[in-house]
Amino acid sequence: MKNFIIGYGETLTRRVEIKSGSGPKAHPYSFAEARDKLVSDLARIIKEIDSKPVQQCANGEVVIKFIQHPSYLAKSYYPTQLFKKFGIKDVGSKSVKVKPRKWAVTKHPEEGLASCIFVSGSRTTFEAMLNSIAHDHLPEITETIIRSIEEVSSFSAIEKIKAIDEDSDNLKLEVVLHAESIDEPVHKSFTEYATSLGGHVDWVRSKSVGGLTFLPVLLPKGLETALAEFSHLRVLRSVPKLRINRPDAIRATINEAFTLPEYQPLNHDFKVCIFDGGLSSDNVILPWVNEFIPPDVTSSHPGLLAHGGEVCATYLFGPYDANNKSFQAPYTNVDIVRVLSPEDSDPDLFDVLTRIETVLKKKIYKYVNLSLGPRLPVEDDDVHVWTSVIDSLLQDGHCFATVAVGNDGDLEGGYARIQPPSDMVNCFAVGSASTNNENWDRATYSCKGPGRSPGMVKPDGIIFGGSDDDLFKVYSPQTHSIIGTQGTSYASPYALRVAAGIDAITDFALSTSTVKALMIHHAVREDKEITDVGWGRLPNSPEEVIECKDDEAIIVYQGELKASQHLRIPIPIPEGANCKWIHLKATFCFNANVDPEHPLHYTRSGLVVTFRANEDKVKDGADHADTKTFFSTDNLYETEETLREDAHKWETCISKSHRFKKSTLSAPVFDVKYHAREKGGDSTGTKSPLGYSLILSIRAEGETKTYNMVLQQNQTLQAVKVSNRVRIQ
């Protein structure tokens, strides 16, 4: 008799009132010191504004940078009120490394991570700000914000240029403007300025997300620096190449006998989609697959069709099983949308993205796969258009998206980093494992982390994608043969097969964040670097995820959190368990609304999770049990990011395991509080409830009745029902 994961953990939870507070802030600068520096910086800025040509200034305004001291990264120190007081528009922010003039603490690094905020204003506005700060009596809250400012400076053209294709006389550029879709004065001014340089702005393909507008621009080579002088221009780069597989991947025909599963109608109440290169019309997998071709895709190419077919086959059947000379049966049907066309110039990534965007906006798919994207590494200071657009479409949690991290992991330094849009916080970024056996590691080509903060743990996990020593053997519908290949293009749909399979074989309403949490909870990292494998090697089948051993109970909690309220989540340790040690593992996941113009403060939602191990351990005067550390970033990345006071709470996924003596645990709980922010600071609008998912493992070491005891002692919990299609391993 198999034990299956336990549902309805949320029935155990309850609301609690917990008082919170913190001590006074230690400031590195006195108000007088900070005021004198700010006045000096503003005076210099005003002189620079006077020398700037009018045509480079949209609506008579310029964008400048306010850089805060590294000690002020928390949302409560974001200088929104300062900007509002003087009528300055906050248009975005990014992270920068700063060596401040002074620190307020004895122990500190030489450099710290700081918030660089872009603001837009006219000369008159900044002059009024200077005069008021220099001469007026200011409220205490304004003085405190001024003390957080390290420096104010111009935003130079050279900072905005990321990567230029030196081989072309006519540059195809991606330009990012500090402009919303309604900012017509900025749009008009930029068009006029770019045209004066001999450029062409393609507004038809432009995309606006949050406070940013992304658009393609054609420009004669050598004028990129002049274009970057436009004040509201944030980033400028050559349009990157598209990646769909490993450029130099081995492709070998495997001469082995095989059988495909017989077609059987599959019952599931959700839809799955793959965005790729399409299918050939005489395809034998067509009973399981529906193809959709957008109106602007009028031709195909054998290479694109081969890739699309193989990605579909990977999702349906997984890799070839050499022991049984066969492929596994599909868990679901799948749609494929042909988003790649040989007629796309260079290729035009804006066209490909638009086709994906058009489908995702319809919200008809619960599971999707992207084994493609721009071929360039992610950067900490800016979010790419693919990431911005797709992350915004996924932020409501309706869709679970697996995304290949890219195949440049064997390049030097930062060039090996994960590629857009796998840096999304609302996706499941998948890298490649070198093999399916016990001697697994990251495949050398698989791109590495970290991601951005928030979103530091990337890839989310790795799964077999092939290597030189162990090729990924996939069914090729185009040739009706087995092809040996490798690439994250195959790892990604393989992971989607497992994720959607969990949903297909369980008779239980699983949210997408719960499926993500289940995948991460069952990942195994062993001694591998987190930058290489993320949370670890992912399970190869849904059956691995849904089964529990006799000495463990895996409980699924799915619920909602109201902003600023505490939710108490009991950890149901079985009473009477005959053991010395209790092993606990917890994985929290949620989807977050995002602000692409604020990469450092990218997510609008955050969780503060407090662990209370023993209800009897209460300090004098306290209302609740003492807290213990359970989740921490300390062992994730030993970088400046760990110095952030509140970095951990803004991660959309956290997972950790600990071992405790049973005697130290008495009615243990997690207390969870949902924090909201907007554009880096406190949220000003209505804070909608946040859907969360928690996967909790309780293992009583040596107690073989743990699973049954948890169910018997908690009557509202129920084992998840599993379809009879499940293949017991």
UniProtKB/TrEMBL annotation:
Organism: Alkalimonas collagenimarina
Protein name: S8 family peptidase
Family matches, as Pfam families: Peptidase_S8
Peptidase S8/S53 domain sequence ranges: 290-536
InterPro entries: Peptidase_S8/S53_dom, Peptidase_S8/S53_dom_sf, Y4bN_pept_dom
CDD domains: Peptidases_S8_Subtilisin_like_2
N-terminal signal peptide: none
